[in-house]
Write a structure and sequence with these properties.
Length: 209
Amino acid sequence: MSDRIIRTDEDLTEGLAYLTSVEPRFDRIAPDLLPLPLRLKPDGFAPMLSAIVGQQVSTASAQAVWEKLETAGLSVPHSVQAATDDDLRACGLSRQKIRYAKALAEADIDYKALRDLPDDVVVKKLTAVTGIGLWTAEIYVMFSLGRADAFAAGDLAIQIAVQDLFELPDRPTDKDLRAMAEPWSPWRSVAARLMWSYYRVIKQRDGIR
């Protein structure tokens, strides 16, 4: 893993300077997309549950559900464990996400220990929990752990943005995009932020909450 942790706007500036030096297309669009958002979140159970809530729904829908969960006090493990399916459904969770929320609450993840583990190990531990897929785990590594080189290659908005910027005939697959992103290391997390900002411009909507 990269030793770099993104904590400040200055870190983003450093990363973007590197990216624009290795990829002319980034250099062309970056001035119109500044400032890039830090998007940093705390680590722990609540951000992980929030990421699950955000799976495959719009930004607005995810935010609305999350606000209901917080209002109901259902953003900590013991309350989720004690909640009935009806309690969680009333907040807007689907049957599938109720199962995922319960699985996360029962997983007893040592979130503090994750801070000192390599990116791939963190992803492996998180994806062992029912309902946490690769995208969700990588989003957590990027924004809750602040890892500078994490990259959610399976993110639809990033794929669409890359397809547009690089004038690709088809939207790149997860595998293809990971290969494309190798030259962007050790700042792939900044490249992701750049692509989300670009997506917002070309589609006039946010790609991630």
